[in-house]
Amino acid sequence: xxxxxxxxxADGPEAELSARAALTRVLEPGDEHGGRWLRxxxxxxxxxxxxxxxxxxxxxxxxxxxxxxxxxRRAALADPRRDxxxxxxxxxxxxxxxxAEWPTQLDDLGDARPVGLWLRGRPNLxxxxxxxxxVVGARACTPYGAHMAQTLAAxxxxxxxxxxxxxxxxxxxxxxxxxxxxxxxxxxxxACGVDVAYPRGHAGLLGRIAGQGLVLGELPPxxxxxxxxxxxxxxxxxxxxxxTVVVEAAHRSGSLVTARRAQALGRITMGxxxxxxxxxxxxxxxxxxxxxxxxxxxAEVAELVGSIGELAPERRGPVLARDLLDRDTVRxxxxxxxxxxxxxxxxxxxxxxCADEVIGRLYELHSLGFVERQGDGWQLARGTPGGxxxxxxxxxGGR
Length: 399
Hints:
Distance between the termini: 68 Å
Number of strands: 13
Helix content: 40-55%
Number of helices: 17
CATH architecture of the largest domain: 3-Layer(aba) Sandwich
Number of domains: 3
Radius of gyration: 31 Å
Shape: elongated
Largest sheet: 9 strands, mixed
């Protein structure tokens, strides 16, 4: 009963763990008032304030009587031992600030940082978060968007990056599937309990992610999502990762919330361009007009978020045979008229050089198959070399 005194689990060696697990039942994700009180009083101290007798001087600063009453009702019903046992039954655990597995980049959220995170999956969250990229976008995506998300995620996973997304339909699901299909690492950040399959159509996908990667969220077991929880979940995706890639997003998209939060936190924000006529790419294009970087594949993403030396291959068109000619030889080649032969004097006048120079260049062009002799004249050879030359770099895939 409220006011009966602090619960037994609020003291002892596991007090911090138990108190923070209990507070995930009390405070909504991103509650900055609660975050400030948690910083001022500590987890166990805040639980004592919310479960013990609460005279007026003991009220947390800024807490109205109505707000405090709501917190106290929730605190009275919290049972962290039960929640921790439920999590353990499904192979889960709870990590919190100060524990060995806590990813410290989440501390950049200040008072809005999570009280703690519930996890399913074997990998170490702290280690994975150090080399992670968020891939997010529209739920009602186009086939182009799904293809780009899946290809990007597979390429990043092959390069040793953890692909983080929100397990929603559309771009999120495509990103997770791309990473899983390549045998790589992926993590899903949920707006509900990690034991709740939401959306239901992704129950199988979430099971695969938990088996091969990580499923995580701020809410305790059995919690269901709400619209506001989806929006607040995005701040965790933004803070947890080195950068955020938006594949498709309309002007009013939750993915843009993630990208803008990432920008505010100093993370790298990237966008994949789409057709100028596509409303589903309009939000991405707006990002690209600002501070976001344009990317088209995993190599370009890795170059932006990775370490020194993780460079994307140089992008250029094919090398044509005439590209290998020097400037003076090209000038003689360009002086040759189409469809008829020309004599040396005519070519010397057209190319602005002397006859002896033209003769030398013509024989060079003849040996390369560009021109042929016709009596006293020269003309362009049929099938003049103009196709692409496969250079050594091209044969090695541009590396």
